[in-house]
Design brief:
Blueprint (H helix, E strand, L loop, with lengths): L3 E6 L5 H13 L3 E6 L14 H7 L4 H4 L5 H21 L5 E6 L1 H12 L7 E5 L7 H4 L5 E4 L9 H19 L14 E5 L4 H13 L4 E5 L3 H11 L5 E6 L1 H8 L12 H5 L3 E6 L6 E2 L14 E5 L2 E4 L3 H14 L7 E6 L16 H14 L5 E5 L6 H17 L1
Parallel strand pairs: 1-2, 1-3, 3-4, 4-5, 6-7, 6-8, 8-9, 9-13, 13-14
Antiparallel strand pairs: 10-12, 11-12
Helix pairs in contact: 1-7, 2-4, 4-5, 8-14, 12-13
InterPro entries: Tobamovirus_resist_UPF0261, UPF0261, UPF0261_C, UPF0261_N
Pfam families: UPF0261, UPF0261_C
């Protein structure tokens, strides 16, 4: 069956590109729906969804925007209107993929729109800035970024090839027939946070949950991963949490690589979801550096290089207390329905007995602070085990299952 690809574009500057994309999509047997998110210039071709209709859906008539037009004022209105129209079309099964074109401003607007669309819905952004740091554009949604290489400013032989590839990708994604939806079950989908230093334990947890009839989604706890896990909690996709990795909290205290943001570790408590918490990877930081270069501020810290450009310093006792304080403060929203397990023999591969960053004094300070400040509604359990030990992982997983089955 033919699918419909929505094209997000400013037709005052990218009319040729939009027309070419439309032809490419239709040549593959699918339909194109051009949405004009421009405001000021004259559209070079006719849109299927006009800028007037998008502005109206955004809550402000276009004529009012044009009375004193600025990008700062117009952008949010066109984004809001596009989101409203696309969400309706997606719900009605009338749009099956979205494809955006843009430079810096266009990429910002298109990606803001895409970030509001459902997980699993195909989203492709052809952008002049897709070769750099795209984290602010992608956020925590599954947006595919395609670097245009040349500027997106009228057609040429190379641009035609890039746009042809983008059209083919959008049509292919729309035609897969695969839909992201949780299978009907009386068992909730479990979210698991993970880091490389505790992956063996995570695999054991996955296998144990699967054996008990539960499906899981694992998130790499590098900032975006933890935030995505919590967004899926908000959207009702994830119904229980095995929060096995807390490196995002340590990095957030120092605002470095894996920083999870101020909301991290608060959402499950606010929603009352069953959760089991373990401080995996919370004893070190991840810091981007020039290859194999030790930052001046950490020359007095034990350290390793996780990769040539990811520097990993071991936190000392005082710094570990700061991490514990942040963890406990975030968990104030959790008033029950939760266990916190302390693995006294180490919270990750670097700090286990014999590990490169083993430091029992620092560990002891961290554990003592957690015990002192953890909210009373959370059940604290200490185990003389390493975080990846089979017995530890199995007990933690079974505790989460017990919380789920009490609901």
């Amino acid at each position: 069956m033919p699918k419909t690809i929505a094209i997000l574009v400013t037709l005052d500057t990218k009319d040729q590109e939009a027309a070419y994309l439309k032809d490419q999509i239709e040549s593959k047997g699918d339909n194109a729906l051009i949405m004009d998110i421009g405001v000021i210039g004259t559209a070079g071709i006719t849109a299927d969804l006009s800028r007037e209709s998008i502005a109206e859906a955004g809550g402000t008539p276009l004529q009012h925007i044009l009375e004193n037009p600025t990008r700062e004022a117009a952008g949010p209105i066109m984004v809001k209107g596009s989101i409203a129209l696309l969400q309706k079309l997606i719900t009605e099964d009338r749009v099956h993929a979205v494809l955006g074109l843009g430079g810096t401003q266009g990429t910002t607007s298109c990606c803001n729109i895409m970030q509001a669309l459902p997980y699993g819905f195909p989203k492709i952004m052809v952008s002049t800035v897709a070769s750099g740091d795209t984290s602010s554009f992608v956020g925590i949604k599954d947006i595919t970024m395609m670097f245009s290489v040349s500027d997106i400013l009228k057609l040429n032989p190379f641009t035609r090839k890039v746009l042809s590839n983008a059209a083919a990708a959008a049509c292919g994604m729309a035609q897969t027939g695969s839909v992201f939806e949780q299978q009907k079950s009386d068992k909730p989908l479990i979210g698991i946070s993970n880091l490389g230093v505790i992956t063996k334990g995570t695999i054991k947890a996955i296998e144990h949950f699967n054996a008990k009839g539960y499906e899981v989604i694992v998130f790499h706890a590098v900032g975006s991963g933890g935030r995505a896990m919590e967004q899926m909690m908000k959207e009702g996709i994830i119904g229980a949490v095995f929060d096995y990795a807390m490196g995002e909290i340590a990095d957030d205290v120092w605002k470095v690589l894996r920083a999870g943001g101020p909301e991290r570790l608060t959402v499950a408590g606010k929603l009352g979801l069953p959760q089991v918490l373990c401080p995996g990877g919370a004893e070190h930081l991840g810091i981007l550096v020039p290859e194999n270069e030790v930052p001046e501020a950490y020359t007095d810290h034990d350290h390793v290089f996780h990769s040539p450009i990811v520097f990993v310093p071991r936190l000392n006792a005082q710094e570990m207390e700061q991490v514990a304080d942040s963890i406990c403060e975030r968990l104030q929203h959790t008033q029950g329905n939760a266990y916190f397990l302390l693995p006294l023999q180490g919270v990750g591969d670097y700090s286990k007995p014999g590990g490169a960053l083993e430091d029992k004094v620092s560990d002891a300070a961290f554990f003592a602070r957690i015990k002192e400040k953890l909210p009373k509604g959370i059940t604290l359990m200490e185990r003389d085990a390493y975080i990846e030990d089979t017995e530890f992982v199995t007990e933690a997983a079974d505790l989460l299952i017990s919380l789920i089955e009490k609901q």
